[in-house]
Amino acid sequence: MADREQPVTLRTRKFLRNALLSRKQMVVDVLHPNRANVSKDELRTKLAELYKADKDQVAVFGFRTQYGGGKSTGFALIYDSKDALKKFEPHYRLVRIGEAQKIEKASRQQRKQRKNRSKEVRGTKTKAKKDKK
Length: 133
Hints:
alpha+beta; elongated
């Protein structure tokens, strides 16, 4: 994996300390020349050591690679504690970083079909009403 050995530069901008949600939030610019992209897991590790936090307290999302490659921009949240992360992060992002289990459920179409089938009323009373009309 010579790809992971290529240098990566992180630059943060629009840094904000959000005390109400007990986190630091920022826009992250990732410079990765000669490299296709950088994994979110690697970004979490680098941001954690940059801001002296634990990797489990960092959430990154929304990364888009610039046309032509070499630069990506996304968003990062560094929570004060792991409990704050679990309290304020959306469930789907907790699943992505391995902090929660995905809730398995039937597909949307199957749920709608089941709902509509249950609405069908079977019996003689409804038939009698239809015959009167």
